[in-house]
Each structure stands twice: as C-alpha cells, then as structure tokens.
C-alpha cells in the first residue's frame, strides 16, 4: 500500500484548508485521524510548524503500526 503516514503528511501539509477524515481499519481495530480536530487543538499553530510536524509524523507512524499488532482475541 505504500508509505501511508508519508502520504497523509503530504496531503495535510499541502492542503491547509482541507478537512480530512482518515480511517484505517484492520479487523476490529481502527486508526482515525481528523484534521479539523487537530487544527482545533492547535489553535493558531499550523500543522507545518516544525514541532507539530515531528509529533504528527510520530503519531501517524504509531497509529498505523498499532494496527499491525495482534489483538487480544488473536493471542
């Protein structure tokens, strides 16, 4: 499927006014990202701010990686 976190970063940083709701489901697990929620939490701080970019990159990678972990039901 490619590097989804990098793709999402490019979409979010390249489209400041875009309202994006991303949902990735694997079996019973889901990773959900809503750009409007992020922007509300950040207030006037843009997603392109260096500290926010680092956090967002980590958040996206961790969210996607968590979907690859076995669930309690699978153990």
Estimated helix fraction: 40-55%
Mean pLDDT: 90
Overall number of structural domains? 1
Strand order of the largest sheet: 1-2
Number of E strands = 2
Give unreliable regions as ranges.
none
Number of helices: 3
Largest sheet: 2 strands, antiparallel
- What is the first-to-last residue Cα distance? 26 Å
Task: Give Rg in angstroms.
Answer: 13 Å
Structural class given helices, strands, pairing?
A: alpha+beta
Listing every helix as H and every strand as E from the N terminus to the C terminus, the arrangement reads HEEHH
Beta-strand content bin? 15-25%
Identify the overall geometry: elongated
Structural write-up:
This protein has helices at 4-14, 35-42, 50-66, and strands at residues 21-26, 29-34. It is α+β, with helices and mostly antiparallel strands and 75 residues long. The chain has one domain. It has a two-stranded antiparallel ribbon with strand order 1-2. A hairpin with a 2-residue loop joins β1 (21-26) and β2 (29-34). Helices cover 48% and strands 16% of the residues. α1 (4-14) runs antiparallel to α3.
């Amino acid at each position: 499927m490619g590097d989804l976190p990098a793709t999402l970063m490019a979409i979010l940083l390249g489209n400041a006014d875009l309202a994006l709701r991303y949902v990735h489901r694997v079996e019973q697990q889901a990773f959900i990202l809503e750009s409007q929620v992020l922007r509300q939490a950040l207030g006037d701080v843009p997603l392109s701010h260096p500290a926010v970019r680092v956090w967002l990159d980590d958040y996206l990678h961790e969210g996607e990686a968590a979907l690859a972990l076995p669930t309690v039901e699978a153990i």
